[in-house]
Amino acid sequence: MKNPYEVLGVSPNASDDEVKKAYRELARKYHPDKYRDSDLADLASEKMKEINAAYEEVQKMRSGRGNANGGGSYNGNPNGTGGNATFTQIRNFINQNEIAEADRLLRAMDISQQNAEWHFLMGCVLYKRGYFLDAQKMFDRACSMDPNNGEYRAARERLHAQASTYGGGYRTANSSDCGCDICSSLICADCCCECMGGDLISCC
Predict the structure, then answer these.
(1) What is the mean pLDDT of residues 77-94?
(2) Is 133 exposed, middle or buried (0-12, 13-18, 19+ CB in 10 A)?
(3) Is 129 exposed, middle or buried, given 0-12, 13-18 or 19+ CB atoms closer than 10 A?
(4) For 112, which DSSP code?
(5) 187 pLDDT higher than 50
(6) What's the confidence (pLDDT) of residue 171?
(7) What would the DSSP string read from start to end of 114-146?
(8) What is the mean predicted confidence (pLDDT) over 4-22?
(9) Does the pLDDT of residue 123 top 90, yes or no?
C-alpha cells in the first residue's frame, strides 16, 4: 500500500494527536454519505477505505512505543483494535450508518474478543439506536478496561454531560417507551459521529 503518512498528509514525526486530527479531517471530507447521490460515490468510498487503512497502519506501527503524547490513540494499547480487521470493518459500518451490520458483527464475536474496543463500539451502536443508558454502561466498561484511552474517555464524558444537561431522557434496550426528545437524540448522534470521525452538528 501507499506510504500511510503520505495518505494522511502528515509527517512521520507528527504527534499522535496530529495524526488523529488529520485522519478525522479526511474522514469528514471523504465520508461516503456526502456523496451518496453523486457520481463520485464509488471514488469516495475507495478513498475512505484507503484513509482507514492508512490510519490503522500508522497506529499499528506506533503501538510498540505506546502513546507518547497522551492522545489516546486506540491502536496504541493492548485493548485497542490491535490490527483486528473485524473492528476496523465495524467502525466503517458505523461511519456509514449501517448500524444493523455493525451490531451483527459485534454480537457474533467470541466473548474472548470482547475487549475495551468491543465495548466502545457496542456503545456507539447503542448510541445510534437511542439506547443511551446502555451506551453509557458500555463506555464506562471500555474506560475501566483501558483507562488511558482518550477516545473512550471523550465518548463517556460527552454522554455523561448530555445526561446532566438533558436530564432523565435515557432509555435502555429493554424500554417500551422512548424517553428521549429530538434534540437529545441529535446531540447523542452527533457525539457518536464525532467519535467515529464525522460531525453531524458542526456547532457542537
Answers:
(1) 68
(2) middle
(3) middle
(4) G
(5) no
(6) 52
(7) --HHHHHHHHHHHHHHT-HHHHHHHHHHHHHH-
(8) 89
(9) yes
By the 8 A CB rule, do 169 and 184 touch? yes
CB 191 within 8 A of CB 158: yes
Write the burial class of residue 111 (CB in 10 Å: 0-12 exposed, 13-18 middle, 19+ buried): exposed
Q: Which pLDDT score is estimated for 88? A: 85
d(CA 103, CA 118): 11
Residues 6 or more apart in contact with residue 201 via CB below 8 angstroms: 186, 187, 190
Quote the radius of gyration of the chain (alpha carbons, Å): 17
Q: Nearest CA to 160 among 143, 177, 181, 176?
A: 143
**pTM for the predicted model, two decimal places:** 0.48
CB atoms within 10 A of CB 44: 18
Grid coordinates of 135: 451506551
The grid coordinates listed for 110 are 467470541
Return the C-alpha cell found at 188: 447523542
